[in-house]
Amino acid sequence: MKKTLFAIFLVFTHWLGIHAEESSLYDVQFEANGMTYTLSNQSFPLELSVDEWSGGSFRDIFDNLYTVASFDHFMPSSEWLSQSGDEATLVSNPGGGFTLTISRPFTGMIELCGSYEYEYMDTTWEWDPDLEDYVETPISVQTTGDYYISISVPSYEPEPGLSAIVASSGDVGKVIGANGRLYQDADAAARAGTTAEAMVAWLDMTNRTGLAIALVNADDHVQFRYAANKITSEWAPSHYVAFAEWRLPSLADWRRIFAGCGGADPSSTLTEGSAYDIGSFADMLQRAGGVGFSPLDNPYASSTTESAQSWCFDFYNVFFTKRNTMRNYAAVRACLAFDFMTPYDTWAATNGLAAADAVTEGVPNLIRYAFGCPTGACNPFTGISFNAAGKPVVTVHAPVNTEGVSITLLSSANLTDWSQADELCRTDFGPNGELIFEHDTAATARFYKLKVEE
User: Judging by beta carbons within 10 Å of its beta carbon (0-12, 13-18, 19+), is residue 205 exposed, middle or buried?
Assistant: First the structure.
């Protein structure tokens, strides 16, 4: 559904309000001895020190079982964007221990690798020939080995000034970074210093809601009844995306995702086991930098169940089918749901205009957006002339904002009836960026109006 405003008249649909909370602090997870600990409200640069651990001594976590002798290096996970020492340093503290400093937020995990010394008192039984019996003797036992500690930061601070995901109708196929911004593909997100998490697959321009599909599986083999928990308990905490929420796709979600990529209408009749059109979904995911859906994987789970059976999508046979929720296994791919603002919405908010209002001082707001006049008079036309062949040429001022909108010209022989209007695209630019529309018509009387459409 597109939103269209005209220089003469307009059609406008209200959209749902966006609620987003900006977070400037981070939850840091620490795993050791099989236990997970969380430090809330940490800020960056983040310093994790053996002697300066928030909420108590870092050594307390070891329960006095052994003394940490040294941690000599860190191993970044595959999601850590750089292995250079510019963004993470590990320094030995005087008297033992270490301090790890992370200079910027990230989504991923770092393993600290080092050695430990373990000393404890034990007893042994030795034969005493004088007593002709075994005697308990205390001994000191020492052992050394390697130890690994993993530290992860599941929360990522949104970019300063960003209060919501910003998207437009042409952004399907782009990726969403952990920071809430859209990028052309995963490589572009990495160059910008963030991690690509999902590909935008469906945008509802009327209600300003969207769906994106994760770039990789959350699991390849899990019982259907545990699929939703796999997303909420395991996937979501370590793949934070600003202004969005992870979930297991419903049947309706899967259908919208495919439709957004050129597939079947999500409101069409669905027949279990019949071939389903997924459009360019697979190709778009590959171009975005995602891992495809292998036909040899289990079918992919949805959250929609009927009579102890779960709907799922089989990429081998390319159809929707059902599996027993308790007995059968599925692959799991997370879905990202989000509200968004368009570039026009953000412009309207910046200029004190309500995005749900279509007109300000008699001029459609989309016209004001495109031509950079938030208030006052705003006439996009510069005039009509005729070329050497006697054909009309309509010139429009150079637009100021074109992101997220298209600008076309309609022409009609009847000022009150535009049902049979011709739609003209720009044929040239003027010396100062003006839009020039040449109309190949022999009509002696024509009316023109400008159409700006999201």
Answer: buried
Location of structure tokens 């019982």: 223
Report pTM.
0.63
Task: Work out whether the CA dihedral 388, 393, 397, 399 comes out positive or negative.
Answer: negative
Rounded Cα distance between 60 and 350, Å, is 50
The set of residues, in sequence order, having a beta carbon less than 8 Å from that of 137 and lying 6+ positions away, is 123, 124, 125, 126
Given a contact cutoff of 8 angstroms between Cβ atoms, the answer to whether 26 and 42 are in contact is yes
Q: Which structure tokens are listed for 73?
A: 């290096």
CB distance 199 to 212 below 8 Å: yes
**Tens digit of pLDDT for each residue in 182-191?**
999 999 988 8
Instruction: Report pLDDT digits (tens) over 392-441.
Output: 899 999 999 888 888 889 998 888 888 888 888 888 888 888 989 988 88
Q: What is the 3-class SS of 2-53, one letter each residue?
A: CCEEECCCEECCCCCCCCCCCCCCEEEEEEECCEEEEEEEECCCEEEECCCC
The separation between CA 30 and the C-alpha centre of its own chain, rounded to angstroms, equals: 25
> Looking at residue 309, what DSSP letter applies?
E
If we measure between CA atoms, which residue out of 183, 212, 178, 182 comes closest to residue 194? 178
Pick the closest to residue 302 from 332, 261, 257 (CA basis).
332
